[in-house]
Structure formats: structure tokens, C-alpha cells
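Here comes just one.
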Amino acid sequence: MARQLATSARLFLGVLLVVTTLVFALQRVSFADEGPVSEARTDNTTRSGEEEAMFLHETLPLDALLTYAQEHNATIRAARARVLVAQERPAQVSALDDPMFTYEGFNIPENFDLTRTDNNILKLSQKLPFPGKRRLRGEIATHEAAIASEEMRRVEAMTRAEVKKTYYDLWQVHQNLLVYSREKELAAQFATIAEKKYAVGQVSQPDVLRAQVELTRLINRVTTQSLKLGEVRAMLNGLLSRPPEALLGVPHDAPKPVVRQTLAELTELTLSSRPEIAANAAAIARDTTTLALSRKAYFPDFEVYVERFFNAGRRDGVGVVFSATIPLAYREKYDAGVAEASARLSASKADLRAAQDTSLAEVKSALVRAQTAVELINLFTQTHIPQAEQALASARIGYQTGKVDFLSLLDSLRVVEQVHLEHIAAATDFEKAYADLERAVGEPLPRRE
């Protein structure tokens, strides 16, 4: 009787252990399931009133805008979340499998009285990979996290460049609007002069009509530029994760256009900083480790069992079982694994070379565009604009005194309009080329005068 009670107690404790383990595991699963939901509920990026007020200032600061984009841009936030995901992988893939508890009952009576079962066996087993496999899996996951981190840097650099380029698109539209508004006022003044001269018979009616046509053209340009403001604002608001119709102030004037870095300096900086290059280097490290892991597959994995026997009417006891896989039985699949890992490593090395070639080509292209824009800006500010303004002032006086006809005055007005627009376009081209240059290098380039 005492022996039966002891056996029952031990079985009860064993079953209790299993139930407790299952309950604990279910609780862990339940909490894990609730985690993302809670996080999703709190994943609302808040915007302070101070941040929103920034957009309504008379001038829109670029630095504050870039900081805002870094915090609120949806693509950056997604990339940041993917980094967190990747960083959680090494601990998971390098861990051992869960130990397994097993109960076996042999010849259990029909009334399920386990105390009368011939053999009650409680087993605890653990799988053990060949030494080094878990470490290699963890290293592969760590390299994957590094790749995700470089991908986040790539997205940040790309977003930063897009914000800058769109910011200067908005600046260009505002500046064009100022040019057209000024030209419209001048055209209105010229129309008034033409009407007065026509009234006293000094000019013919076509001068008055040409003045009205020119005034209408400029009014139309002002209208179309005002509509274009809405288009560019929507693009910039999209990068900031704001509603398309949200208000924005007027961008600052662009700083003095200058590039002091040499191509050699930019090349060195690109090879050390460009996220795509760093990501491909991390991919090579990952694939090298993957190749090492594939070679480890030729070595066996193990499993150890510890068993406790409760025998009805006989002596109880313990048992130990040790088992190992035989990977040589189907060796061809491991050969294929090594071949696959080797090919993947070769592809990663080629990708690295392609990323380097593409990056350096983009650096050279952006640098040439920026240098070309600087030359044009200097030409406009030092020669074209002063000469055009001087020619317009002279033509205006000449028309008023009857020494110049209206077509010459109109031509001077259009030349002034054109050189101002081309100057603004060149300044915008420089800023966009500089943004592309920073994007190609992979990090901001300080302006040095």
C-alpha cells in the first residue's frame, strides 16, 4: 500500500510539473500576442504645437524641417522598426531548442489506475546541435541586423535628400512668383505709358495692344505659379507625413553655392560612409558565416534523454539515452547547401563591387552638376542680370523720350525676366545637385566657404 501511495505521489508531481509548464508557456504566448497590439495602439507619432507652429513661420527653416522628417517620416520609422526586429533575432536563433518532457505508460489498466501500470516512464530530453552551430547562427543574425541598420541609414539619407530637393523646389516656385509679380507690375506701368502716348498721338494703337497682351501673359504666369505652390507643398508635406493641404511657410534663401571637397576626398568618404556599400560588406560577412555553417552541417547533432521508470511490482530505476544524427546518409543535400552558400557569397562580392561603382559614378555626376550650376550662378549674378537690368532701364527711358520703340522695350523686359528665372533655376539646380551629392556620399557635407 505504501509503495502504491509513493508511486501515486510521484506520478501526481510529474503531471503537476507538465501542467504547470504548459500553463506558463501559454501565459508567455498570451503576453507575446498582446505586445504588438499594445505597441500599435501607442504608435501614434505625436506632433507638438511648437512643431506645427514652425511650419507657419514667415520663413521655413530647412534644418528644423530635416529634424522633423527624421522623426516623423513614415519610411524612416518603418526602417527603424525593422532594425529592432532584426536585433531580436540573434538571441532566438542561437538558443537551444526547448527541452521535451514525455510520459509513457505501458499496459495501463482499463480503469486508468496508473499505480497498476506495468511501466510509468517520465522522460526529459534535450537536443544539442554540434558545437559551433548555434554560435554561427547567432553571428548570421547579427550580420542581418547590421544590414538592416545600414538600410535604415540609406532610407534616412534618401529622405534627407528628397526633403532638401523638394524644399528648394518650393523655394524656386516662390522666387518665380516674385519675378512674375515684379514683371507684371512693370508691364502694367509700360501699358499706362503706352496709353498716355497713344492718347497724344505719339505712338500707334499696336503699342497699347502689345502692352495689354504682355500684361495678360504675366498675370497668367502668376496664376500658374500660385497653383504650382500647392503641388510642391503636397510633395513636401508627404515627406513629412503631414496632410497634403497643410500650410507651409516660405523657404529660406539658399546659402552661397560652393563645393570645396575634391573628388578624391568625396571618393574616400563615399567608400567609408555610403550605407549601400556598408550593407554589402555586412552581407559578405553574413554569407561567409553562412558558408561556414553549411560546412558544419556535415557534423552530427545530438539528443540526450534522461528517464525515470516506475515499475509496478518491480524495482524502479533511471535510464539515459544518447542519440546522434547521421548526416553522411544523405550527403548530397549538404553538398548542395555548401554550393548554394558559396554561390551566394560570390553574388554578395559582386554586389559590393556594383554598389561601389554606382556610388562613385553618382558622386562624380552630382559633383559636375553642382560645379556647372556654380558657374552659371556666377555668370548670372556678375554679368547677365546687371546688364539686363541696365538695358531695361535704358529702354524705358528711351521709350518715354521716343528714341526706342515699344518692341525694344518689351524685348528688354522679357530678357530681364528670363535671366532672373534662369538664375533661380541654376541656384535650385545647385542645391538639388548638392543634395544628390550628399546622398551619393552617404552623409551630410558641411558647407565650407
Summary: The mean pLDDT is 88.
